[in-house]
Design brief:
There is one protein chain. 66% of the residues lie in helices and 9% in strands. The chain is α+β, with helices and mostly antiparallel strands. The chain has two domains: 172 residues, no CATH class; 160 residues, Reverse transcriptase/Diguanylate cyclase domain (Alpha-Beta Plaits, 2-Layer Sandwich). α10 packs across α12. The two termini are 19 Å apart.
């Protein structure tokens, strides 16, 4: 029913959003590198043996499978890590088949290891680099332990190359991620901003389509927020927004996304939740914010809720419907959710969040 929870590789929704964005950008480069490696193996097949070419051919066949599965997968990071580990394993087999500790294929381990550093966070980088180093040791020791111990130069140089290049690329990519993080996060509240909103919704829509699952939008607006700025000043207003964002994050699960659209207007994307349950969750958020008194003030919010599934699941349509219902909630007196949730759904949401 729900969007997949975080994994060890991407524990938070923002981690996965960053991974998906970086993977999409790096995909043409990654596939080109696989092509270059494949051509290199084909050119060396006469010397290395056609069995080595067969091993690489199997891995190359996995590339289109991974490219096909990732966009619709709730855990795309697992597919790409599996491809990276398969590439490392294939090179390990090639090392064992072409001389072990003196194999010319040893330096090739840097290719899939560094490819992983370009898209994964520190955990994924550690896993990929560790797998490459372990493969270098195992492929040589199991093939010719005596030769590896007696002449460790090739193996040692390969390990230094893997780790040093991997760490260097990882440092560059972390700087890029920080830069991109500044562009997708609202600096005041720490919520997501609208930069990648529609693209992320489209990814969620594709995942929901696999199981005909719904997605709900909740459009929230702080009631009479202009009065806060006019009466208490903009600094107090900023404190109110930060406190509201904090209460939002506490009320949502890891796969539920919160965006600041601008000013005091916020948006929740709730994958796998129908309209009635989304309205109940919005009402729970409304109550928590009122009880928290953000910025030490009596603050209320109004919410408009809309949900759909299947062919009706379109961002523009859902947003327009949620916006119309937000307007209806304000017209009815503010501090309310429209449509009004039932008591039964309120109780179920309380059980889920408590």
């Amino acid at each position: 029913m729900h969007q997949a929870a975080g994994t060890w590789l991407c524990p938070e929704p923002l981690d996965r959003a960053r991974f998906v964005d970086m993977e999409r950008r790096m995909r043409p480069v990654r596939n080109a590198v696989f092509g270059v490696v494949g051509l290199g193996v084909a050119g060396l097949a006469a010397r290395w043996g056609w069995e080595v070419l067969a091993v690489f051919a199997v891995v190359c066949l996995l590339v289109p499978v991974v490219d096909l599965r990732m966009p619709a997968s709730p855990r795309p990071e697992l597919w790409l890590m599996a491809l990276a580990l398969a590439g490392i394993a294939a090179i390990g087999v090639a090392i064992a088949m072409t001389g072990g500790p003196t194999s010319p294929a040893l330096p090739w381990l840097v290719v899939p290891a560094v490819a992983a550093t370009a898209v994964f966070t520190t955990r994924g980088v550690a896993l990929a680099l560790g797998a490459a180093v372990a493969t270098a040791l195992l492929a040589t020791l199991l093939t010719d332990a005596g030769g590896t111990v007696a002449a460790p130069s090739y193996v040692g140089a390969t390990i230094v190359l893997i780790v040093s290049v991997g760490l260097y690329v990882h440092g560059l990519m972390r700087a890029e991620v920080r830069h991109r993080g500044d562009s997708v996060l609202d600096p005041l509240t720490g919520l997501l901003n609208r930069t990648t909103l529609e693209r992320r919704f489209e990814e969620l829509r594709q995942q929901a389509a696999l199981g005909n699952a719904p997605i709900a939008l909740v459009l929230l607006d702080l009631d009479h927020f202009k009065r806060v700025n006019d009466t208490h000043g903009h600094e107090r207003g900023d404190t109110v927004l930060r406190d509201v964002a904090y209460e939002l994050r506490k009320s949502l699960r890891s796969f539920e996304l919160a965006y600041r659209l601008g000013g005091e207007e916020l948006l929740l994307i709730l994958p796998g939740i129908d309209e009635e349950h989304a309205a109940a969750l919005a009402d729970h958020v409304r109550r928590r914010i009122a009880e928290a008194q953000p910025g030490g003030l009596e603050i209320t919010i109004s919410c408009g809720v809309a949900a759909a599934s299947g062919a009706a699941l379109r961002y523009e349509t859902l947003f327009a419907q949620a916006d119309a219902r937000l307007y209806a909630a304000k017209a009815a007196g503010r501090d309310r959710v429209f449509p009004v949730p039932s008591d039964a759904h309120r109780e179920r949401v309380l059980r889920l969040v408590s």
